[in-house]
Write a structure and sequence with these properties.
Structural class: alpha+beta
Helix content: 25-40%
Largest sheet: 6 strands, mixed
Shape: elongated
Number of strands: 20
Oligomer: single chain
Radius of gyration: 23 Å
Number of helices: 14
Bound molecules: flavin-adenine dinucleotide
Length: 457
């Protein structure tokens, strides 16, 4: 039994392929969870076609992949879990390609904090569909609208024997003949739970997550003795859509145009933060302005300098959708955004002076010759607001995906994979690894569960 994201379908696919009878329980009406809205990046140091080598993108290895992940996580991660993720990443990727019909783009891009190991599809949904295809082909069944409400354990120290679910037809108990795999994702949409670990993450923060990203399954596992770790390690994205929290196309420009001199202003038209500060610091400063949203401001020269990062068609689409606003002068831009343009112009002038003098007297932003002044049109503005993006903490597992209890022993017949677990990403995730980890660990959980003898009382 599992749920319906990358980890859940991954577990179901491997257990069903090994001949086990599998039921996938999904509380939402739609399957896919965060995995289906994922941007489609999967980190792997190699693949069976050795694309990185063929494209001459430099050396890489499982050891380097793991080392980059550990460094990005500030060495809070469990090295054994990370090593397994890196080692198994190519095999799990090839499995989705050969068995699930996954199609990837031919190119690779660079992983933040690592080499060219990002294999990418149009979206995470492509990976979900590949795993779902394998699972259903081997007889797994998917039940949507069914919510896990209790995990039954046969006494303290005993095995997990089943679960209770809520369905539109009322509550039901399901016996697990072999095992239960928890693959219920993170808790980015669970305001009470995220506040329990980071009180600052109130409803003032949106979330990029799907609405079902709530943490009850972590609590259910804890109630039968499971250990959890790193629950306060919650990643916030400062540049999401201000109303929906979505990481839309404009989020990329907001991120990248800063590197060329873009500034961030409040509704009053003032800078309020070092634009290159860590995501968390920018987010906190935005919320502290007391007025939603904030605006990333840049100009045509910066856009041209960032040309490698965008296409004209993408900018045209973002303008047409109203995600990005453009004007000939900063005063007109302010009018179009509904904030005082004269204040933006004064802010831009002041920052241009700091650039010329080589020192940001207001927020200590490091100033380099790569930064351009905001002194000529066309001008662009993007309304943005922080959103909780990823919860790195969760249930403690070992590298066989067994859930570990508070005394350090595996809970018999209980496995977990994906964002519901903690210990892989530490304090800073590198992009792509949170697509890889649920697939690798889901696959391990499924095959470990399938290898068990059916439970008998
Ligand atoms: C917008 C966005 C973009 C992202 N892009 C990337 C990217 O490009 N690369 C990357 O590495 N990472 C990315 N991530 C992170 C990554 O997508 C997730 O960490 C990963 O998909 C989690 O997979 P999962 O299977 O653990 O959980 P999910 O895919 O969230 O699946 C969990 C499922 O469990 C269900 N569930 C929860 N509780 C219960 C319950 N009580 N009973 C029954 N069902 C339940 C949920 O409804 C959900 O369908 C992104 C995340 C978001 C939100």
């Amino acid at each position: 039994m599992s749920a319906s994201g990358l980890a859940g379908f991954g577990a179901a696919a491997s257990a069903a392929t090994a001949g086990s009878s599998v039921i996938i329980i999904e509380k939402m009406a739609q399957y896919g969870g965060n995995s289906a809205i994922n941007l489609g990046d999967y980190a792997s140091w190699d693949d069976s076609q050795h694309r990185r080598a063929a494209l001459r993108l430099g050396d890489d290895s499982a050891e380097q992949h793991a080392a980059d992940a550990l460094a990005a996580g500030q060495h809070y991660s469990n090295p054994e879990l990370v090593a397994t993720m890196a080692r198994e990443a190519p095999t799990a990727l090839d499995w989705m390609i050969t068995e699930g019909g996954l199609r990837l783009h031919a190119a690779l891009h660079r992983q933040g904090g690592g080499g060219f190991r990002m294999h990418f599809a149009d979206s995470g949904r492509n990976f979900v569909e590949a795993l779902r295809t394998i699972a259903l082909r081997h007889g797994a069944t998917l039940r949507t609208g069914a919510k896990l409400e209790c995990i039954w354990r046969g006494g303290a120290g005993g095995p997990v024997v089943g679960i209770a679910i809520a369905t539109p037809d009322g509550p039901r108990n399901l016996a697990a003949r072999k095992a239960v795999v928890l693959a219920t994702g993170g808790f980015g949409a669970d305001i009470a739970m995220r506040r329990a670990f980071r009180p600052i993450l109130t409803a003032a923060y949106n979330t990029t997550n799907h609405p079902g990203a709530t943490g009850e399954a972590i609590r259910l596992a804890q109630s039968i003795g499971a250990d959890a770790l790193h629950l306060a390690f919650i990643e916030v994205h400062p540049f999401a859509h201000p109303e929906t929290g979505a990481l839309d196309a404009a989020a990329r420009y907001a991120l990248r145009l800063r590197r060329h001199g873009g500034i961030i202003v409040s509704r009053a038209g003032d800078r309020f933060v070092n634009e290159m500060a860590p995501h968390d610091a920018i987010s906190r400063a935005a919320v502290a302005t007391g007025e939603r949203p904030a605006y990333v401001i840049f100009n045509e020269a910066m856009l041209n300098a960032a040309r490698e990062d965008r296409t004209d068609a993408e900018i045209a689409a973002a303008l047409a959708q109203g995600l990005v606003v453009r004007a000939a002068t900063l005063v007109e831009l302010g009018a179009a955004l509904g904030i005082p343009g004269t204040a933006i112009a004064a802010t831009a002038q002041r920052f241009a002076r700091f650039l010329a003098e080589g020192q940001d007297q207001d927020f200590g932003r490091p100033l380099t010759s790569a930064l351009l002044p905001l002194d000529a049109g066309l001008y662009y503005g993007i309304p943005r607001w922080p959103a909780v993006h990823f919860t790195a903490g969760g249930l403690r597992i070992d590298n066989r995906a067994r859930v570990i209890d508070i005394n350090g022993a595996p809970i018999p017949r209980l496995y977990a994979a994906g964002e519901v677990t903690g210990g892989i990403h530490g304090m800073g995730r590198t992009g792509g690894n949170s697509t890889t980890a649920p697939v690798v660990y889901g696959r391990i959980a499924g095959s470990e569960a399938a290898a068990l003898e059916p439970w008998e009382e």
